[in-house]
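Give me structure tokens for this 328-residue protein.
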Amino acid sequence: MIHVIKRVALIVVAVVATGLFYTAPAAAQATRTWISGVGDDANPCSRTAPCKTFAGAISKTAGGGEINCLDPGGFGGVTITKSITLMCDMTESGVLVAATNAIIVNGSGVVVQINGLDIEGLGQTGVAGVNGIYFLNGASLTVRNTKIRGFRNGYGINFAPSANATLVIDNVQISESGIGSSSATGGILISPAAGITAQATITNTQVVNNINAGLRIDTIAVGAATAASAVVSNSVFANNTTGIQLKAPPGSGPARLMLANSVVSGNSTAGIVSNGTTSVGRVGGTVITGNGNALTLSAGGVLYSYGNNQLDGNTVDGAFTLPVIPTH
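Here you go.
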């Protein structure tokens, strides 16, 4: 009997000791979470108990997971540091900010998709937002079916990766961004850090009514290994100060453009600019009309034509760099 009592006592002591050192596991993150205009960030972000904002939901969403929008709402700005998809194609989902960035992507190796948002920077209020989407670090960013406007103090999309990265823009409208007092503002910027490669694919996109460049591809971060390039098709660059600008300062790597089946029109200063000896643009099947200077080449920059463009009706039409590239 005494042995039994001793054994029970030892078991009790062991259980108590185990309890002293036990830490409850953190709440599990869901691979799919939900937000709603009438949600609450105190909720678990489930389908039946959605959160209110992207910032509230992202902490409860596992890396590589997805945040879905249930119904119309303004869901606030967010900083993304892990792979995530914001999926809001089926409802009116907004992000409205003043004097700051709307969405920041800054996580090593992250893969981010943004779908179906209306991102407003309040460009007419005097306290305009900075960047609609600001990409600082990650492996890739995809933006689809989205409207971005009013970011007067920066860019609609500012793609400035600190590691090699890719950008995909599809069916996006960018307008009313940029400010005359700063040339480092406009529609879209592709400008990697020194020694970094940034590659962009832009399709079915309208970049209109921006101050400065609608699309700027810039290797201003000096270093021969720095490279920025964009393949653009079925897109419109209209009524900006400059439609598309390539810039590669001396000592930097290449800034490249492949432009096909698009429209560059009504840009007050220039349609397409190529500035720098490693700035190379290739253009095919594109209408270039109603601009100030249609084509501007400086400091050794070149713009080649596939011979099937419609270059006419500009204040100064200019000419492509010879020879014309065969289309076959």
